[in-house]
């Protein structure tokens, strides 16, 4: 087979097996993104720890399933975004807990170590 100069050669795609499933977006990818978003929004209130943990576990499962599907499960972009949001939520929760501990230590440092009695008590 010859081609005219300047034209790329025609590449023939292999026929798909009729038993192969159609590519579909993983439903876990949507769940990971939603939970990651909730974790990022509630991370400052320390409520983001639970959805972030669930999102990271689902992300791990979804990656395993996508690898096993041989490319028929899509949604890797949503998984990455959800995972980043989940880690952001965990980071915000950790910063909030760190701030609370620092404030508690500073307040404890200002408190007297001994009991202060009234001047008329021996």
Number of domains: 1
Query: Pairing-aware structural class of the strands and helices?
Result: mainly alpha
* Helical amount: 55-70%
Strand portion = under 5%
Mean pLDDT over the residues: 87
* Series of secondary-structure elements, N-terminal to C-terminal: EHHEH
Strand order of the largest sheet: 1-2
Shape call: rod-shaped
- Rg over C-alpha atoms, rounded to the nearest angstrom: 28 Å
Uncertain runs: none
Number of helices: 3
Overall description:
This protein is mostly helical and about 120 residues long. The chain has one domain. Helix content is about 60%, strand content about 5%. The protein has helices spanning about 25-40, 50-70, 75-110; strands spanning about 25, 75. The protein has a two-stranded parallel ribbon with strand order 1-2. The longest helix has about 35 residues, at about 75-110. The radius of gyration is 28 Å and the shape is rod-shaped. It starts with about 25 loop residues before the first strand and ends in a 12-residue tail after the last helix. This is DUF4190 domain-containing protein. Keywords: Membrane, Transmembrane, Transmembrane helix.
């Amino acid at each position: 087979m010859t081609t005219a100069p300047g034209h790329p050669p025609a590449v023939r795609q292999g026929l798909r097996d009729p038993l192969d499933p159609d590519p579909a977006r993983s439903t876990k990818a949507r769940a990971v993104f939603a939970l990651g978003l909730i974790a990022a929004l509630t991370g400052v209130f320390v409520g983001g720890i639970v959805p972030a943990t669930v999102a990271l576990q689902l992300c791990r499962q979804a990656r395993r399933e996508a690898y096993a599907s041989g490319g028929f499960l899509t949604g890797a972009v949503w998984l990455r975004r959800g995972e980043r949001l989940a880690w952001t939520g965990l980071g915000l929760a950790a910063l909030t807990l760190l701030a609370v501990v620092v404030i508690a230590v500073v307040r404890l440092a200002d408190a007297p170590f001994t009991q202060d009695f009234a001047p008329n008590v021996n």
